[in-house]
């Protein structure tokens, strides 16, 4: 029984001296992050396919059970819209190969303009992907959530290849107006989709966005604690990513979420205790 938790990144300036040792070379920070969380979103691969040697370094810094949910490049998903990007896809798959079992799922995040009429394109794309990977799709067109017939068609396309549907829960974030610069920035950028809590596979993935205030973040994730606990009792192995607008406390919050689920499911193993970090000093 495993619940993996993580953040949107493995390094942030505000984490240095708190969650990550300082100073520490950038190519070693993932190792420190992996002492706090056992999963991470691979958002950087959306903007550029990394060098294979770089990915090999990621694998060297993490345990084989660590989970990367790695986003396909935007040239594949947003610019070519899953059509005619075979060369770019091959280069991406070659680059991430060193992750081995750590590549928990390849994340296909689609633009808001990718709607119900595009489901056949997605279905064909998924069928052509190599069976050696698991796949998870994030959609941002409201019809997929609001129209039951459209929801069903998308679920059928995903189920045909055992792919998961990733919900990005921003409902708690948008419950009240922003109160900080980070929240105001996220307010203008994050999607406002209806809440979805259905798992299609035995490895559901959830992205949750809270607020900069810890109490409001925790209040907003309460329903997910029960949902994830139920998934574990059903034999599923979920991965949950905790976001806040500034992400300043995200590693600690991810561990807190894991602790809250474990309080409901005592047989869930605790996360390893992270190595203490010396605080930053002026000298």
Secondary structure elements and their pairing?
Blueprint: E1 4-7, H1 29-33, E2 39-42, H2 52-60, E3 67-71, H3 74-79, H4 86-96, E4 103-109, H5 119-128, E5 135-138, H6 143-146, H7 148-159, E6 164-165, E7 168-169, H8 181-189, E8 205-209, H9 214-233, E9 239-243, H10 250-264
Parallel strand pairs: 1-2, 1-9, 2-3, 3-4, 4-5, 5-6, 7-8, 8-9
Helix pairs in contact: 5-7, 9-10
Name its key features:
283 residues, 10 helices, DUF72 domain-containing protein, DUF72, single chain, UPF0759_sf, 2 domains, 9-stranded parallel beta sheet, TIM Barrel, alpha/beta
Textual characterization of the structure:
The protein folds into 2 domains: 38-166, Protein of unknown function UPF0759 (TIM Barrel); 169-270, no CATH class. The protein has 10 helices and 9 strands. It has helices at residues 29-33, 52-60, 74-79, 86-96, 119-128, 143-146, 148-159, 181-189, 214-233, 250-264; strands at 4-7, 39-42, 67-71, 103-109, 135-138, 164-165, 168-169, 205-209, 239-243. The protein has a 9-stranded parallel β-sheet. β4 (103-109), α5 and β5 (135-138) form a beta-alpha-beta unit. α5 (119-128) runs parallel beside α7 (148-159) and α9 (214-233) crosses α10. It is globular.
């Amino acid at each position: 029984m495993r619940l993996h938790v993580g953040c949107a990144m493995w390094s942030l300036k505000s984490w240095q001296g708190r969650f990550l040792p300082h100073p520490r070379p950038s190519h070693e920070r993932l190792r420190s992050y992996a002492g706090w969380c056992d999963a991470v979103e691979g958002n950087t691969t959306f903007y550029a396919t990394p060098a294979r040697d770089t990915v090999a370094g990621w694998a060297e810094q993490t345990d084989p059970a660590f989970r990367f949910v790695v986003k396909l490049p935007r040239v594949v998903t947003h610019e070519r819209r899953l059509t005619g990007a075979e060369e770019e896809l091959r280069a991406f798959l070659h680059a991430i190969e060193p992750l081995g079992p750590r590549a928990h799922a390849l994340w296909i995040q689609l633009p808001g303009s990718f709607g119900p009429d595009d489901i056949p394109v997605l279905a064909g794309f998924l069928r052509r992907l190599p069976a050696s990977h698991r796949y998870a799709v994030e959609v941002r067109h409201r019809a997929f959530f609001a129209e039951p017939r459209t929801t069903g068609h998308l679920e059928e396309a995903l189920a045909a290849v055992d792919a998961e549907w990733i919900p990005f829960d921003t409902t708690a974030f948008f419950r009240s107006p922003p109160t900080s610069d980070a929240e105001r920035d996220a307010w203008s950028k994050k999607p406002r989709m209806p809440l979805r809590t259905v798992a299609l596979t035995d490895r559901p993935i959830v992205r949750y966005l809270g607020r900069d205030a810890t109490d409001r973040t925790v209040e907003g994730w309460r329903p997910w604690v029960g949902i994830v606990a139920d998934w574990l009792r059903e034999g599923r192995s979920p991965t949950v990513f905790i976001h806040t607008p500034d992400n300043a406390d995200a590693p600690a919050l991810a561990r807190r979420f894991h602790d809250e689920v474990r309080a409901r499911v005592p047989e869930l193993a605790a996360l390893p205790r992270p190595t203490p970090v010396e605080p930053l000093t002026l000298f």
